[in-house]
Structures are given as structure tokens and as C-alpha cells.
Amino acid sequence: MKAEELKRRRVALGLTQAQLGAEMDVSGNTISRWEIGEIEPEHSAMLDKALKWLELSKALKDDPWLEEAEGMLAQMETKLKARRKQIRKELVDSIARIEANPKRAARMADDLNAMKKDLAELS
After folding, report:
1. Of all helices (H) and strands (E), which one includes residue 74?
2. Exposure pattern of 83-109 as b/e (b: 16+ CB <10 Å)?
3. What CATH architecture applies to the domain 3-62?
4. Where in the chain are the domains?
5. Fewer Cβ within 10 Å of end Cβ, the chain: N or C?
6. Please, which pLDDT band fits residue 64 given cuts at 50, 70 and 90?
7. What mean pLDDT do residues 58-65 have?
8. Would you call 73 helix, strand, or coil by DSSP?
9. Does residue 62 have a pLDDT over 80?
């Protein structure tokens, strides 16, 4: 990778030399030396991949679809919590009805134990 390209891509990402250095686990001074062509990165292919990852990450953060998707995810989480609460209540009620009748509880012992296990997993 050419020194000018590295600088152009860093600036486009809105990163300082120190910030890019922190992402690359090198000093900001090393980034500076790469950008002026004083030294070359030992693994320019890895540097290129890291920059592509940072560029993709920035693009995703700036994508309005991501904000919409996060909102949809929040709505789904709220619905899931409500559904889990409903299922938990139904299990508690079913267990209480079965245990209220000892003969029925004995006959349905395996089902009762499975329901109690399901209830524990929901809690």
C-alpha cells in the first residue's frame, strides 16, 4: 500500500494517526512514518484488511437502515419478554392445577417435572 493511500484512507475514516495506531496496535508515530514513506508496514496486506474492516464498520454505523433494524430488534425483544411472561404465568397456573389434585399429579408426574424444568429455564 502506498503512503498516500494510507493517509487518504485514514483521513476518510476521520481518524488521527494515534487513533489508527491504537486500532493497529502500533504507535501513532509508526503511522506517521508509514504515511510519509519513511518506513513500510511489514504486513501491508494485513493493514489493508484492517482498513477495509474499519471502512465497513464506519459505513454500517452511518447506514440509516441500521438504526431502523435496531428499533425493530428492540420491539421484538419487548414482545419476546411479554410472551415469556405470558408463558411463565400459564406454566405456573397449569402446575398449580395439577398439584391441586394429588391423583392427577401422580399420574402426570413426568409432565409436571418437565413443566417445572421449563419454568426454571424461563426464570
Report:
1. helix 64-100
2. eeeeeeeebeeebeebeeeeeeeeebe
3. Orthogonal Bundle (1.10)
4. 3-62, 65-122
5. C
6. confident
7. 79
8. helix
9. no
